[in-house]
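4.2 Preliminary Data

To establish feasibility before requesting continued support, the project team ran the inverse folding procedure on a target of 263 residues. The structure was first converted into the token representation described in Section 3, and no sequence information of any kind was made available to the design step. The complete token record follows.
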């Protein structure tokens, strides 16, 4: 089960892993906390945008081979210019949800599906979005309640990310590389490096499904990624990274279900 905050987060962080596991015969479930109705898009924030983004999510899930999509139905908390929670958010914003209550709802799905694995985000929420931070809290507690044996925090290896973005910025100088300098996780803490180059087309199709998040007056990160030629795309986006907190220090694995080393 892959737990994300908004539609399109799965495309950016875990799409290759999801496509790989589905191709291997695993039942892959995609859960989002919100419909992303406060995201940036030409359509404008609100209910219509939320519906459009959920339709995009279903197209993305189909491209990845997901068996089920679930929206927990919380409101998008939004993101203020200073990185905090947006003003005017809905009364049921995910960031305001009681962690125990939200975790209980997620745990019900984990138990119903008999999930072997749950992905969340790192404690910082990747780039710090409040809803991403809440995914970490809610997901960790839900796994405890349901007894889910493997919890992986989806992240990005900040080291090659910065190298790749600096390369891309030569062609797209408007890309703000500095905003990623403290995002996600350094390579030293990552436990899983999952090679997904074989599934680059599915991952790219997942990204392309989220058209509302790839267009607009401003240059969007997703839109820039989709303009990268496929051979370079495979190189830059051909690995996905996770942190599993219960592994021995220094463990490095290449598959979500790989057994940790003994001792």
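Position-by-position output of the design step:
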């Amino acid at each position: 089960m892959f737990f994300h905050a908004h539609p399109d987060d799965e495309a950016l962080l875990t799409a290759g892993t999801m496509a790989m596991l589905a191709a291997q015969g695993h039942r892959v479930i995609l859960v989002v906390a919100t419909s992303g109705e406060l995201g940036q898009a030409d359509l404008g924030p609100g209910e219509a945008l939320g519906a459009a983004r959920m339709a995009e999510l279903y197209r993305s899930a189909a491209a990845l081979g997901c068996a089920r999509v679930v929206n927990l139905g919380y409101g998008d908390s939004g993101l203020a210019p200073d990185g905090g929670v947006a003003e005017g958010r809905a009364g049921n914003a995910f960031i305001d949800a009681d962690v125990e209550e939200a975790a209980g709802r997620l745990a019900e799905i984990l138990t119903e599906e008999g999930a072997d694995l749950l992905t969340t985000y790192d404690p910082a929420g990747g780039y710090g979005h409040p809803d991403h931070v809440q995914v970490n809290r809610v997901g960790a507690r839900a796994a405890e309640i349901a007894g889910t044996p493997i919890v992986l925090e989806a992240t990005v290896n900040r080291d090659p990310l910065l190298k790749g973005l600096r390369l891309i910025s030569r062609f797209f100088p408007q890309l703000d590389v500095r905003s990623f300098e403290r995002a996600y996780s350094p390579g030293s803490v990552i436990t899983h490096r999952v090679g997904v180059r074989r599934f680059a087309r599915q991952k790219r199709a997942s990204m392309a499904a989220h058209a509302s998040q790839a267009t607009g007056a401003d240059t969007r990160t997703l839109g820039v990624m989709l303009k990268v030629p496929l051979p370079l795309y495979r190189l830059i986006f051909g690995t996905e990274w996770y942190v599993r907190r219960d592994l021995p220090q220094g463990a490095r694995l290449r598959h979500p279900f790989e057994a940790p080393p003994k001792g």
